[in-house]
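anyone seen this seq b4? input:
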Amino acid sequence: MRINGRDYRTIWLDSDGRRVHVIDQTGLPHRFETRTLASCEDAAEAIRTMTVRGAPLIGVTGAYGVALAAWSDPSDAAIESAHAALLATRPTAVNLRWALDRLRALLLAAPVSARAGLAYAEAAKIAEEDVAACQAIGRFGAELIHKARCDDGPINILTHCNAGWLATVDWGTALAPIYTAARQGAPIHVWVDETRPRNQGASLTAFELLGEEVPHTIVADNAGGHLMQHGLVDLVIVGSDRTTRAGDVCNKIGTYLKALAAHDNGVPFYVALPSSTVDWRIADGVRDIPIEERSAREVTHISGRGADGAPIEIQLTPDGSAARNFGFDVTPSRFVTGLITERGVCAATEEGLRGLFPDLGG
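predicted toks r here
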């Protein structure tokens, strides 16, 4: 995607073939900066602090974190230590474990002298696979968007959190169909949930849509049901941090409420995800998916830009009030119209997923 006249991915390898560069998403939309990851510890910190975020991008960053570790020390012990340290950074998104397990299995089976080169090659392969998957998700999802048009007005799409190119290596998941359909000439308008408490919708999704010149309007998180009641939403498309083999979807907190409102108002509710986000080990998302609980300060305080343009943080709540910050919720499969994947659209069921991915759900 393009920023300030230059094409960017969210993560890329330095010309030295070792260090890794990422876009620092904590400064967006007001400050665009990049960060250099020179060690496994740097990669873990970038994931932990949400310098990088979004399930697919976390997975790729974790893969490069293992590569950085292997460059310094390719021993079995160092690989295992890197795997454990990176896995502990974020508990909910399954892409991280998927990528780390893939790197560990490859490296431990290889000669020690070959491990660093193999690690970097595999991390780059995972990144390219993610781009290809997101492009395919965009094509399949765009077909649904074109079919949603029923009059001469714009196609109104509601999304939640950020599942665009900033959450992946490029293109995105939930926003890939929007970008693809818009480039194909579809008249699209996006309702952008602010996505409290970190406001990834108001900051990141809006930032992306501005860059792509896609018409959009930022709304408070609780406005979605009202919009649907008044016929102002044609379909909902969200991303996923983990989807069970039975089609339960774990995504940013507040997604479940949007699914309930969509169900009550007959609005199609789609989830866009690559196969790396499917956790084939579990079926019951409410029971089995670990939900990350982040710092209460994200609820009690808010960051923004002051009148002088400088970044500021202000307190929203009275002193002494307790707060809790659940990062994700789970939408049961019965409220999901369909899953948009790199191999097509399927029902949010085990049969639907196995029909598209018979090679993965064994």
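The domain at 138-356 is CATH 3.40.50.10470 (Rossmann fold). The chain has a mean pLDDT of 96. kinda curious what u guys think
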